[in-house]
Amino acid sequence: xxxxxxxxxxxxxxxxxxxxxxxxxxxxxxxxxxxxxxxxxxxxxxxxxxxxxxxxxxxxxxxxxxxxxxxxxxxxxxxxxxxx
Length: 84
Fold this sequence. Notes:
HicB-like, Double Stranded RNA Binding Domain, 3 strands, HicB-like antitoxin of toxin-antitoxin system domain-containing protein, TTHA1013/TTHA0281-like
């Protein structure tokens, strides 16, 4: 059986009540939760797998993050105030 490895960027957002919400930006609506980082990672893999299975079932293309990456952008709000 051929193995295909797909790579996805995920965002782990800590929640005030504890745990982490996981968002998969390349898969709109693919969001899950874990009580801690290890569980959130497992839940993310499960949610991504289910999402991809649904895409394939409906004959839709399966996006990946092979060519994309995340970085941060700093925004100086004091400078933006001058444009308002």
